Structures
1.
Amino acid sequence: MRILGIDPGSRMTGYGVIDYAAPAYRYVASGCINIKADYFPDRLKQIFDGVLQIVEMYQPQALAIEQVFMHKNADSALKLGQARGAAICAVQTQGLPVFEYAPRQVKQALVGKGSADKLQVQHMVKILLNRQGELSADASDALGLAICHAHYQQTALRLQKAVNQ
């Protein structure tokens, strides 16, 4: 299964693509969509177009994206939600299923505790994907979302098998 992870942002949107065949993860690609526009609707269009281009290039079978969470600034949360919407709309035009994960779920799936910090998540992403060198925080978060989705899908399959026995 090929999975696209998206870490949305109104200035920088991270993406990560992995292939997953239990129990192995394989790195395919990662990077960032750098949003250059100042006018917010133009930024959303750049996110939409960038995600659509990634989908067309890598042909993923599912999207894993972070749920919106309220931090300190309501305006930032609203912009993040709109960036998510642009990314989701782009994959929906291609018929991809969308799976949403809370930040705590991703941390739990990768590190084993929902309160893990970004460096711990980034470290586990590198280990699980056998990557050397630096990964940007946005690309690492996106790869973490893709790995999280693979983990949850595998757990769901195991549960299904257990129920059917």
Note: Helices lie at 40-58, 74-92, 103-111, 118-129, 137-164.
2.
Amino acid sequence: MKTKDEVLAYCLDMPGTYADQPFRDKNWTVARHCGSAKVFAWVFERDGCVWVNAKCDPEWRDALRQRFASVVPAYHLNKTHWNSIILDGTVPDEDVRSMLLESYELTR
């Protein structure tokens, strides 16, 4: 996964989700739950890469940050509960999908 479209397509394949642009800045797109409107993925471009903020169980937060140099404390969100995944090709797609699915589940 390297593009915003790929990330959003994966997120929107999850049941009961939709995309939204909550800011005047078109760079930011979020994936939300239909019923609650809670955000589970913040997708944006920064420093020439696509970034995705995903909620994470604090129990796994540090392990993911240590395992992948491109998983860092979330940009503009609570760093205890959210990670930023920098889609620079170093985090396998399977792991990106797993983190997005966890975020989807944690925000239901």
Note: The longest strand covers residues 39-46.
